[in-house]
Amino acid sequence: MVRVGLTAERLAAAGAELADDVGFEGLTVSALARRFGVKDASLYSHIKNLRELRQRVTLYAASEFIDSIAAAVAGRAGKDALVAFADAYRAYALAHPGRYAATQHQVDPELLAGSTVMARTADTTYGMLRAYGLTEPDLTDAVRLLRSTFHGYISLEAEGGFGHPREVQRSWERGVQALHILLEHWPRDQDQEKAQEKDQEKEGGEER
């Protein structure tokens, strides 16, 4: 790579590529500087330190990640949207292991403030789940379930953790189908139901 035109944005993009090659934990200022054929000091004109570099890579990867999912989900609803969401999630994570690892890290609020990635992620994820008739706090519970399920499955798959001869792809498909059935029959929150009953009783009393 050439030195001309170094910017924080270019460093984030190049850092994402490097993370895929050496792992997110292997991403360092020195390693990235060598890719550009410059000294470390040249990068510090655009980033404060390694922490900022990694957080910029996190934002870059997270934006790329949700854009790929949003494109897959567009125009779909219900089970079709869930399958598209899940498959796009898995495809990105397996194709870009370093970038995916980056998306699991938090970003400082001041750096996050200049990005729309969190809003886009929420719009895409919660929008897909609302088709199942979920509202808060069930929406957040469902998001956490999907994220932990996808992440756990993909992490095991990437590490060769499935030793049974059963085809991994078929297990993935069945798992997503099971999630669809669960979302369609999401258990009601008892505390929420009691609160709604009290509200209804209160409204009925006021009418009388």
Automatic annotation (TrEMBL):
InterPro entries: Homeodomain-like_sf, HTH_TetR, MT1864/Rv1816-like_C, Tet_transcr_reg_TetR-rel_C_sf. One of its GO terms (molecular function) is DNA binding. It holds the Pfam family TetR_N. Signal peptide: none annotated. Residues 5-65 form the HTH tetR-type domain. Residues 28-47 bind DNA. Gene3D superfamilies: Homeodomain-like (1.10.10.60), Tetracycline Repressor, domain 2 (1.10.357.10). Residues 186-208 are annotated as: Disordered. Keywords: DNA-binding, Transcription, Transcription regulation. This is Tetracycline repressor protein class B from transposon Tn10.
